[in-house]
Amino acid sequence: MPHVQAWKEYQSANKERFLSELLGLLRVPSISAKGEHKADMQRCAELVKQRLEEAGVDKAEIYSTEGHPVVYGEKIIDPKKPTVLVYGHYDVQPADPLDLWHSGPFEPVLKDGKVYARGACDDKGQFYMHVKAFETMSKTGTLSTNIKFIIEGEEEIGSPNLARFVVAHKDLLKADVVLISDTAMISMDHPSIDVGVRGLSYIEVEVTGPNRDLHSGVYGGAVANPITILCQLIASCHDKHNYITIPGFYDDVVESTPDERRQLAHAPYDEDGYKTDLGVKALWGEDGYSTNERTGIRPTLEVNGIWGGYTGEGAKTVLPSKAYAKISARLVPRQSSKVITQKLLDYFTHHAPPGVTVKATEHHGGEPYMTPINSVAYKAAAKAIETTFGKQPIPVRGGGSIPICSLFEKELHNQVIFMGFGLDSDNLHSPNEKFDLFNFYKGIETIPYFHRYFAELKHG
Amino acid sequence: MPHVQAWKEYQSANKERFLSELLGLLRVPSISAKGEHKADMQRCAELVKQRLEEAGVDKAEIYSTEGHPVVYGEKIIDPKKPTVLVYGHYDVQPADPLDLWHSGPFEPVLKDGKVYARGACDDKGQFYMHVKAFETMSKTGTLSTNIKFIIEGEEEIGSPNLARFVVAHKDLLKADVVLISDTAMISMDHPSIDVGVRGLSYIEVEVTGPNRDLHSGVYGGAVANPITILCQLIASCHDKHNYITIPGFYDDVVESTPDERRQLAHAPYDEDGYKTDLGVKALWGEDGYSTNERTGIRPTLEVNGIWGGYTGEGAKTVLPSKAYAKISARLVPRQSSKVITQKLLDYFTHHAPPGVTVKATEHHGGEPYMTPINSVAYKAAAKAIETTFGKQPIPVRGGGSIPICSLFEKELHNQVIFMGFGLDSDNLHSPNEKFDLFNFYKGIETIPYFHRYFAELKHG
């Protein structure tokens, strides 16, 4: 390919700047879940817009929403050429618990060839690979597709305003494929492409017992303790086989065929290494399924947070008035986020004893999504990865969720391709999130090939 | 009785000062559970000592311990006369949750004839009745017994250092009876005397799953979630009859006789009023027992606090590394705090699945205590209350715990008499703790009669 040498030279000459720009992005605490970061969100959006402009887009714009702004940018080289819509998000998860970070979550640190910061991998480091890959093609005059960027600020809170934006801007967003780097590979030695992401139903439960905190000696044993009841409700969500007991939870699950499960069993997986990495003596999960199946093809239910009563130093003999939990389910194809959310809300609301009242509310949700592996775009992605990694990528099912995928398919009629360059061990959503610089640069190296192959295969 | 008029006049003339001194005590945030209040504890002890001196003791002293100091004071009128040892505590429970207080917990407010502050009833307001009753007798020259005060600073954390102090100062503390006002009456219309307090076993449980917080999509369903496991452990502590399932928990419980239960059933109890006061539609507890039985003669197990994962604003899709709970049991006669604590620790440590590790530690404990109703001291207390209330007090079993009672009996060979003037609705350990000024003054009025009757009956 004629452009390969130009890409290499450009990327090599600008390597340091690419990284220092990423560090600048990582310094902005763009936590979408917390109201106190509203100004940071705006600042981050403006920085993304500026970087898109510098990279060579024809136009870039910040669109306000009822929540955090969406950044849009485009470069149209020829309306007759195929168009790639790159989706990413500049918002990040909250950084708590702060005391477990080895360095400040918004003071990126380089160590052992990795950058440590909240958002390093999810998703600032990954969407920025696209900005720098685009710059590479743009500045070397080697663009082979039109390109559109939509970088939003609400992915980590379920993209509550993006649907309206997409519906209102269908023409603006018109494309041939949606390309997303917000997932992981098995490893750099075992490149893979996610062919599905799970859906999400996220609820919050508030259990109220007595109208005030009580002395646990004076009233204990005679009044329902909302913590105890909440624990009973949560415990009853799984049976002894770790099967989820919410009525109808599995009704719409598409069971994988024996053939799919055989394929999945061939993906590299080292159980001892997995346990050692996590520091656990034994794994846990639904009986009859492997780890890769539990995190890929099966729906799950996790408690993400719980609190109630006295949680300070020492002891307090209180029977509290309230207890709370944040609970979310991951969904697989044919499960509907709306349906499952309602089932969860109903379960918690209707299964409590009469001594308490339960208020269950929805946080956010997203539909599961699967992409076919026989599409032109999938083939282009696989070929690009094979070119730069020297190995054919394995198709796998990802455990995480990207709520907006099903919307892109429904409203824009585009398939979504996941070219993730992260690793499961990148501590996404955890303290000490990281992104390997090798992966960052490998992504920037690989993405231009995708555009090239996609244009070729599309026209061929 | 010749002194009655003198007492009345003295108390009437000094009523306002009694209250303003109490408010001064309530302004000191003497929270024993929190290390940051160490200086406040010392300051509170010094204030108690000063007030004892002003009230007329011969000597007062602050004894250091490995924890918070003990205040001692005495007035010996005649070594041949009986001696009453008054026990109380100047420490208070933590004030959280602060946002539910209508006024600052350490900024006492007078409203509708009540004083609102942490410690108003438990136990500053109640032990201070004894200081002012003593002052009344002392200043009017009407003392009929010797009196010793032991006011400690660690009752709310299980009196960890008082045992050593008592053992080391048996001569100093030599007395004929221990008198404590740290309990409640049924109501001012239904005066009662607690004949027992429950014991306590208080533990903290830490469940650790993976060695770091994880992305709940990437790892959820394949790794044990410590919150889920903790909830399962807590849920399994009660069966569907709300009977406690910890093996051997009930082994040493002395079952009440049908006659005792019949007597208990005669204590005034208004179930509708009880539910309305607490804002609950239904009560909850061990099948086959009434509310008064559940809070008096039966042991109980309550979760006092729980926390883990993300508890902030919005949603975070995390599978946390750790989850915690504070759990305590109330014990009835023949149950041993040490034995039950060990059973609780064993239960939580040994019943978790292999995917997590559980660390369970003891906070503190205390033995249950019962006092006979045919003793001279009980008769003196009953007669004193009958004198000022115009009604015979009903003997009842209290639900709370005063860890030191069994020690007084064991080391000092003294029975303990509970003359409580609080109410269950005084919001002990809760926001907006209060003490009715009527009760405060009624206590100061009643206590001198106890001393008088005790001296008479003892010699009679």
In brief, what are we looking at here?
2 copies of one chain form a homodimer. The first copy, chain A, is an alpha/beta fold and about 450 residues long.
- Main sheet characteristics of chain A: 6 strands, mixed
Shape of chain A: globular
Mean pLDDT of chain A: 95
- Low-pLDDT stretches of chain A: none
Structural class by helix and strand composition of chain A: alpha/beta
CATH fold name of the largest domain in chain A: Aminopeptidase
Beta-strand percentage range of chain A: 15-25%
Assembly status? homodimer
Architecture per CATH nomenclature, i.e. the level-2 architecture of the largest domain in chain A: 3-Layer(aba) Sandwich
Strand order of the largest sheet of chain A: 1-2-6-3-7-18
Rg of chain A, Cα atoms, Å: 23 Å
Largest interface: A-B, 100 and 101 residues
Range of helix content of chain A: 25-40%
CATH class of the largest domain in chain A: Alpha Beta
The first-to-last residue Cα distance of chain A is 16 Å
Number of strands of chain A: 20
> Helical element count of chain A?
12
CATH superfamily of the largest domain in chain A: Zn peptidases
Number of domains of chain A: 2
